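Hey, quick one: can you model this chain's 3D structure?
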Amino acid sequence: MFVKYCLNFAYFASNLRPMSLVRAKKQLGQHFLTDKNIAEKIVNSLQLSESVHHVLEVGPGMGILSDFLFQQKAFETYLIDIDTESVAFLHKKYPEAGPRIISGDFLAYDFSTITEGQLGIIGNFPYNISSQILFKVLDNRQHVQQVVGMFQKEVAERCAAKAGSKEYGILSVFLQAYFTVEYLFTVKAGVFNPPPKVDSGVIMFKRKAIFPAMASEKSFYHIVKMAFGQRRKMLRNPLKPYFTSAQLEDPIFTKRAENLTFEDYAALTFKMHNP
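Sure thing. Here's the predicted structure for all 275 residues.
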């Protein structure tokens, strides 16, 4: 009887082995969320319009968010992960998902592969590529209606920061020009495996119906980057090469980079193109 029990246990254990934990890889910035209540709260933060029928989860790891996403009937869930071990794990965990589990790099992924329509994006995003993920979304904003994501707390706070605050910066201006950004809640480091060295913040941003008027998007990006390159100086210093002496007499150039809203920066593009 004891031998039979051991053989049965060994068989049971061998069948569990394919679903064993995925090893978190430092080079991929992986920290797996372990709190299901937080995972459910993140998924429930999605506020997609009825016209959005596809959601892409980035870096699903072992699927703690995916469990709740696949329960949703209002949209079809896709997963993308660059970690082949995670992808193999997810195929075993969700065999019915099939080609909706994508092995690939989100930063290089063509969203139109999923749909030509609108898309929602969600994820516990790797800290080491946070900015690249945000710029990917910005570059594809016509395709992305909403994002709910967990970032390093400092990055999340920067995204949602208002003009005049010390956290306000380039990302704040760029994102808020095209999206309504909301800081939702903080997630402590202890609910991850392995725990990161800092807390995380969950943010949600929805694409705006109307973008600010500007003479040139390229000029908008350039002015913002130049202004924050010397954020402690009055704007007339970093922006002097792009405006006439008469234009630099405008009181706006006595302000510092963090004191201007995205609307102010958009307005400056017209001045830049009409000396």
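One thing worth noting: The beta strands are 32-33, 54-58, 76-81, 101-103, 119-124, 144-152, 179-187, 192-193, 200-207.
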